[in-house]
UniProtKB/TrEMBL annotation:
InterPro entries: Aldolase_TIM, Class_II_FBP_aldolase, FBA_II. Pfam families: F_bP_aldolase. This is Tagatose-bisphosphate aldolase. One of its GO terms (molecular function) is zinc ion binding. Zn(2+) 1 binds at residues 80, 182, 211. Its cofactor is Zn(2+).
Length: 282
């Protein structure tokens, strides 16, 4: 089976993007795996620091590796890791990818941390991909009243800086700020800067990751993929669907968790399947 690096090359060659979906429990994992299997496409499971604390990093890795042992191309990413210590723990445990998120730090400090993690990861397992974020897109995966503080055109990723960042750190993946935000704004998310994506891709030459995919239109997703995006993160949409499904399941007065939670899994699966169809241009 191809590893994640090889699947990214495959995605770039075919002008599609890999779907990255966050989970907090095994129900979310089931929704993603079932959707991806039915479509016959690879998928990436994301677990942020908070999600790892709740589910357990070892448990999440075991779920993914069990599915992969059966021949299914699914991978796990240690999403939004803010400390080098926790990022290195994720590497030691055997994730497929890890992001060191120092986007709120200075350019120099961001480089320093990313370079440190890359060097550590290369020694441990060069197949593990290291991602860093450059430019600020907020931190919340909630439904927001307004744009996150600090998010603006001025904080979008500069292509020249991006090229220098990649050169100095040797990261495998870059998450740029290109009009995307974490979470969803009630009045509508800002538009993606497609030209900025194209320029950052040209300047860096490495796969780009679009964080904050929830709330972005289908047309913008397709244009972003064509401009150079190789991985797209979806989280807030999944949480909304999962919660709504569980609330619907609870209306039956059912007390067996596997019964009232099933509706949440079903609703989450619908979102994942629709996104995977779009990202893979099926």
């Amino acid at each position: 089976m191809k590893n994640l690096r090889e699947y990214l090359l495959w995605a770039e060659e075919n002008k599609i993007a890999l779907g990255h979906f966050n989970i907090s429990d095994s129900g979310g994992f089931r929704a993603i795996v079932e959707a991806a299997k039915e479509l016959g496409v690879p998928a990436i499971i994301g677990v942020s620091e908070g999600e790892r604390d709740f589910l357990g990093l070892n448990e999440a890795i075991s779920l993914v590796k069990t599915a992969r042992d059966s021949g299914f191309p699914i991978f796990i990413n240690a999403d939004h890791t803010y400390s080098l210590e926790k990022a290195k723990i994720a590497v030691d445990r055997g994730v497929d990818a890890v992001i060191i998120d120092s986007a709120d730090q200075s350019f120099e400090e961001n480089i320093k941390r990313a370079k440190n993690l890359v060097e550590y990861t290369r020694r441990k397992n060069p197949d593990i991909l290291v991602e860093a974020e450059l430019g600020f897109i907020g931190k919340s995966s909630n439904v927001l009243e307004t744009l996150p503080d600090g998010v603006s055109v001025e904080t979008q990723t500069d292509p020249t800086e991006a090229a220098e960042f990649v050169k100095q750190t040797n990261i495998d993946l870059l998450a740029p700020s290109v009009g995307n935000i974490h979470g969803m704004v009630k009045t509508g998310n800002p538009k993606l800067n497609i030209e900025r994506i194209r320029l950052v891709k040209k300047a860096t030459g490495i796969p780009l990751v679009l964080h904050g995919g929830s709330g972005i239109s289908d047309d913008e997703f397709l244009r972003a993929i064509d401009a150079g995006i190789s991985i797209i993160h979806i989280n807030t949409e999944l949480r909304i669907a999962y919660k709504a499904g569980i609330e619907e399941g609870l209306k039956s007065n059912e007390i067996a968790p596997y019964k009232f939670l099933a509706k949440g899994v079903e609703e989450m699966k619908k979102v994942v399947k629709n996104r995977l169809k779009l990202f893979n241009k099926l």
